[in-house]
Amino acid sequence: MNGKRRIGMVGLGVMGRNLALNAADHGFSVAGFDTDARKRDEAIGLAGDRPVQVCPSLANLVDALAVPRAVLLMVPAGPPVDAVIGQLLPILGSGDCIIDGGNSFYKDTDLRAQAAGAAGINYLGVGISGGERGARSGPSIMPGGPADAYGHVRPVFEAIAAAVSGEPCVGYLGPGSAGHYVKMVHNGIEYGLLQLIAESYDLLKRGLGLSDDELADTFAAWNETELGGYLIEITARIFTERDDKTGERLIDVILDEARQKGTGKWTSQDAMDLQVPLPTVDAAVAARHLSMNKDERLRIAGVIHGQERRFIGERELFLVNTRNALHAATIVTFAQCMALLRTASKVYAYGLRLEEIARIWRGGCIIRTRLLERIREAFQAEPDIPNILLQGEIGGEVSGRRQALGWVAHTAADLGIPAPAFMASLAYVDGCASPWLPANLIQAQRDYFGAHTYERTDSRGAFHTEWQSDGNNHQDNNDHARPS
Known about the structure:
Rossmann fold, Single alpha-helices involved in coiled-coils or other helix-helix interfaces, seven-stranded mixed β-sheet, 3 domains, N-(1-d-carboxylethyl)-l-norvaline Dehydrogenase, domain 2, alpha/beta, two-stranded antiparallel ribbon
């Protein structure tokens, strides 16, 4: 091959290799490198006559790139990213750009951008969703960092991204770590949706007694409704897959433990720091932790003699209520996380446009669903709406399905089937819709034991009361309340 390459790819595993082939198919020449010689050889074989040059070293890759150079890192998050950056900074030039396409923690992205900037190097933190198939045929791409640096790689990203109605599912999101923050929240939504779907499966399997074929048919039918989306679609397919080893349905030989890589936990942690309630995602993270304690669960099951019960009511009622509850909880999950993005945008000065985020999530990404077009329209009409439950049509759908959500939570409890994400979603709906909450008692309790003060309904300011003693003194001491 002659001439300089348009973009560099460090990391030729499945994701990196597929992105390189995707870019090459769209006419962009690529220089790739991986420390693993086997992966380099595989990339060469798959590239064929495409404009992909596989390099034997990072130095060779940098030398192969057109100036200003753009190097996309597709390596595991954490120390591997820092290791590659440490090798690249001395051999890149001013105005070149490092692009981290992994699931890096947004605070790490901010630190890396500062270090790169001190060396005159641009740094983009880019969330990429869609898995290996999306990388090959069109992912959703969430870039953040210097706007001018994004402008240089924008043609490549727009070409390789998925498209919906002719619009590429990529868009500049904001400065600094905006892209990786949005990807983190995307993954938080993914945690919530996966858990809700898993709870629906559990209810239908253990509660209603559906077979794998019936489960496949049910989720396939649901995919043709307002629930339609990638996760519902693949769930239907999963129930039909057979295990090569046993011939049984594969789902029935997979261990009931689900691990995590941290992005859901990060989302919950940051929401707590920003004081944005995210109970559905919190419940999903906790459910994964609980699932990993398999031996402990087996032992506790022998102590707490929970008896598995089967639903004895009307089958169609169970199916309709579960579907409606799942749709309501899906909306609630998005509502919580879009509210988090809105707050984070202000606190971290990202300048996020939530309509744009919903737009680029409509195609290519794991959480794509029909609902996202309506969320986009809601933010188009009212960009500053604090919660999409305030949008008349969307909020009305949750209101109309609140009874189903309550029915599912009650039925799950009655059958002894854990449904933490459904229950958390119900509590969120009821809490948001409650004009009064018992937080006044919490204020009083905190002031009683810790003199933390409280606020009043009839006066502004902070107040403290010298409450009655813990002994037998029952004198009313409210006269000691004072602004503080």
